[in-house]
Amino acid sequence: MGTTFADIPGNFAFLVAVGRADQIDKRALDTIGVEGHFPAVLVDSFPELVECFARIAHKVTAAVMRETVKGPGYVITRTTPGLHVVSKAIDFALLIDRSGSMVERA
Asked: What are the beta bridge partners of residue 27?
């Protein structure tokens, strides 16, 4: 499912688990992310989802900046790597699992 969704240009899958670290089976969370080929993160509470979605909505791309300086009898061109950050609205769907299936078993 994650790889099919992520194969569509502009779609990016993320798994966000909500709960305390002692309530979530971190190994299972990591396995789901690895097998699905998408990031899997843990946040402590639902209010933290706002910040999480804001971070997901940032698109950061690498860019090369070119600067040319001309003078009498010389031209100097310098290139430097940089980052271009774009924030935009995102569409998302939530699947909320309250069953406790991610709770680590004792």
From this structure: none
User: CB atoms < 10 A from the CB of 6, how many?
Assistant: 15
Nearest CA among 102, 91, 96 for reference residue 5 = 91
| Angle at CA of residue 7, ends 1 and 40, nearest 5° | 55
For 32-83, how does the pLDDT look when each residue is reduced to its tens digit (9 = 90+)?
A: 888 887 888 888 887 887 777 777 676 666 677 788 889 899 998 888 887 7
How far is Cα of residue 85 from the mean position of the Cα atoms in its chain?
13
Closest CA to 86 of 52, 65, 63: 63
CA distance 104 to 106: 7
Cα atoms found within 13 Å of the Cα of residue 89, Cβ hemisphere only: 1
